[in-house]
Amino acid sequence: MKIIKYKKLPGNKYKITLDNNDIILYEDIIIKNMILLKKEIKENELKQYLDENIFYEVYYKALNYLKVKMRSTNEIEKYLAKEFNKDLIEKIILNLTKEGYLNDDYFTKCYINDSINLKNIGPNKIIHELKKLGIDKVYTELLPDGKVKKVEELIKQKSGTLAFVGDGINDAPVLALSDIGIAMGGLGSDAAIEAADIVIMTDEPSKINKAIKISKKAMRIVKQNIVFAISIKALVLILSAVGIATMWEAVFADVGVSVIAVLNAIRILKK
């Protein structure tokens, strides 16, 4: 299908006139696929663009809903569930969280501060309101020893890894106690930074999701390198035992494997 002309529309959209019909696509799709540089669009490409268009329609609908005020993940899910399927909503939630538009921890903190300072609402009322917004458990007004006790309880109950995020001096004991302590590098105290395992230098809690992805990727690469190195060394050892391997195979098993492992590890630098 040949592209006859295109026109910029309000709301980050383009109207593209093809030889048999008109289509409207979001600007994100236009830029991503460099459509304006093309002279024609194939049928399979058109289907792909239209599928992406549905994603961006829901994405911008959620963004417009967030423009009014800060909201919890549960609120966004309920809002989108009226019109869209669960799989699509999960993709939107993941994207919004990755880009920092959704953060339940930050939302809870802001909600508590606003409720106390602006609305003069007590802790019980705040907890009740947060539960309605999909935040299951809230522990407030905890002193350092109270935080330590609560984390110790969670450690006994937990089935996975327990992470704690903090930025103050009173958070330092809990940061050291938890499986993974995460501190803020800009506003965080020296004690919190010293006790933490991970420091987010930009003070953006949304980067926690990125840190988890990097750590998972690092573990995958480490396991790949271990399996590769042991396999090659074992193979060369067996070949040497039967008199097949020469000195060059032995050099490769030592130096060559190390170089390949280093090159493989460099992949972690890719975004």
Explain how this protein is built.
By secondary structure, the chain is mainly α. It has three domains: 3-98, Arc Repressor Mutant, subunit A, CATH 1.10.10.10; 142-205, 3-Layer(aba) Sandwich (Rossmann fold); 209-269. The chain contains eleven helices and six strands. The chain has helices at 27-32, 43-68, 73-81, 86-98, 104-117, 123-132, 144-157, 172-177, 190-195, 207-241, 247-265, and strands at residues 3-9, 13-18, 22-26, 163-166, 180-184, 198-200. The strands form two sheets. A three-stranded antiparallel β-sheet has the order 1-2-3. A three-stranded parallel β-sheet has the order 4-5-6. Strand 4, helix 8 (172-177) and strand 5 (180-184) form a beta-alpha-beta unit. The longest helix has 35 residues, at 207-241. The protein is flat. The protein starts with a strand and ends in a 6-residue tail after the last helix.
List keywords for this structure.
single chain; 271 residues; mainly alpha; Arc Repressor Mutant, subunit A; Rossmann fold; 3-stranded antiparallel sheet; 3-stranded parallel sheet; 11 helices; 6 strands; 11% strand; flat
Element layout with pairings:
Layout: E1 3-9, E2 13-18, E3 22-26, H1 27-32, H2 43-68, H3 73-81, H4 86-98, H5 104-117, H6 123-132, H7 144-157, E4 163-166, H8 172-177, E5 180-184, H9 190-195, E6 198-200, H10 207-241, H11 247-265
Parallel strand pairs: 4-5, 5-6
Antiparallel strand pairs: 1-2, 2-3
Helix pairs in contact: 2-4, 3-4, 10-11
